[in-house]
Amino acid sequence: MWRRTRLPALLALTLTLALGSVTASASTAADGSAAGGGLRDVVIVGNSADGTVSFIDAHTYENLGSLDVIPDLDEVLDGMDPIRRAAYEIVKQQAGGDKFVDDAHLSPDGATLYVSRGNLGDAAAYDFAGGRQLWRTHLDGFKADHAALSPDGRTFVVSAITAAKSQTLDTATGRITGAFPTGTYPHENIYSADGSLIYNMSIGITSLPKALNFLKGAKEVTVADARTLQVVRTYRFDHGVRPSVITPDGKTMYAQLSYLNGFIEYDLERGRTVRTVRMPFSEAGAQLKPDDYPQNSAHHGMAVNAAGDKLCMAGTIDDYTAIVSRPSLTTDGFVHYPEGSLPYWSVTGPDGRHCFVTLSNRDEVSVVDYTTAKEVARIEVGDFPQRERSGRLAQAALDGLSADR
Q: What does the alpha-carbon distance between residue 336 and residue 120 come to, in Å, rounded to a whole number?
């Protein structure tokens, strides 16, 4: 049985200064909420069309409120030169409208939010204590895509999708500190478990039809040294590499690919696909042509539980979440949603036992139990939620967030 949670009224965005003094060593209650002003386990959700980031209590599933991350929208648009403004309009059209929040991460101390701002082609940082934008940095090209935060919180890695590179930013200043080349249209960035490597997955030019796959460019996984940004290995694929999970030992990758209604198991040591798992189509999904898949994705969203023995798959065109056991790669069960819900991303919550899945067209997040493969909660968020990340935030900051509804 799932329950719906919703904030009843719009609150003022006046975040308290007390957050700046909170540290990660503060005590935490047994349910994961902050005790005595400490850090609170949350899942943050980027509401792409709204330009806001929602904060969900990772244990009670309450929507705690949201932060506006495009307060400078008019200033940014007015400051674009004619070429960049034309590119913005093209990207907006190809994306099916404004997509302002592509990715977002919380700093380890819970005091700062870093955002990759999609169609604006930049990255920005927000200080919760002062309720202000700390910095904004234009990336190369015209669109900012998936991002990753280094384990020490000092480096923000963002895909500059039209420039075919991943760029690194100093989180303290927003200064671009380096870059490494990728395949065509770099997408997801993932740090290895020990933080020594960065994996970038490229998807190729999504606006071209499947019949012109040979013109989409290099679809690959690029592996770079996290310190030097030197490329140490590249894996080539026939189709774009979508959301992926890499095992802590760095030997195996599970990945969704463009047009594949399922996922692959890939041996990173030998550089080959070991197994291809095809998931069932829904009735509506089976009727779609590959060129009708959203941004070439049949399935888009993958996460792994803390034990490492369950995968959570977002069946984007099939309107379900599937829980899959490993190493057998057998399906434990499905959570089905109304047609057109568009499950579009998956992340494991801080407890390691629940998967949070965005339902982009319903402005909701579905919480699925890894053990039972059942939905335990449904949470309303902002307009067109996409990327989610786990993090910790100070209790003192929450009262100042604005409601999504």
A: 34
Among residues 30, 18, 44, the alpha carbon closest in space to that of 385 is found at 44
The tally of CA atoms less than 13 A away on the side-chain side of residue 30 is 0
Helix, strand, coil: what percent of the chain each, to 5?
15, 45, 40
DSSP output for 11-71: PP----GGGGG--TTS-B-TTS-BSTT-EEEEEEEEETTTTEEEEEETTT--EEEEEES-T
Give the span between the Cα atoms of 142 and 160, in whole angstroms.
Answer: 8
User: Is residue 82 within a helix (H) or strand (E), and if so which, with residue range?
Assistant: helix 82-94
Instruction: Name the β-bridge partners of 290.
Output: none
| Residue reference for tokens 């204590």 | 129
How far apart CA 229 and CA 227 sit, in angstroms, is: 6
**Residue 24 — very low, low, confident or very high, per pLDDT cuts 50/70/90?**
very low
Give this prediction's pTM: 0.91
Q: Which long-range contacts (CB under 8 A, 24 or more apart) does 129-134 make?
A: 129/15, 129/16, 129/17, 129/18, 129/19, 129/20, 129/397, 130/15, 130/17, 130/20, 131/13, 131/14, 131/15, 131/400, 133/71, 133/72, 134/174
If you compute the radius of gyration of the chain from its CA atoms, what whole number of angstroms results? 20
Q: Per the structure block, which two tokens stand in for 249?
A: 């030992």
Distance CA(372)–CA(288), nearest Å, equals 30
User: What is the CB-side half-sphere exposure of residue 291 using CA atoms within 13 A?
Assistant: 7
Longest dimension (CA), the chain: 59
Structure tokens at 384: 């067109």
Q: Provide the pLDDT for residue 8.
A: 33
Structure tokens at 395: 């209790």
CA neighbours closer than 13 Å in the CB half-sphere of residue 55:
27
Can you tell me the distance from the alpha carbon of 295 to that of 30, in angstroms, rounded to the nearest whole number?
A: 41
What average pLDDT does this structure show over 364-383? 98
Which residue stretches of 220-336 are H helix? Answer: 283-287
Contact 101, 115 (CB under 8 A): yes
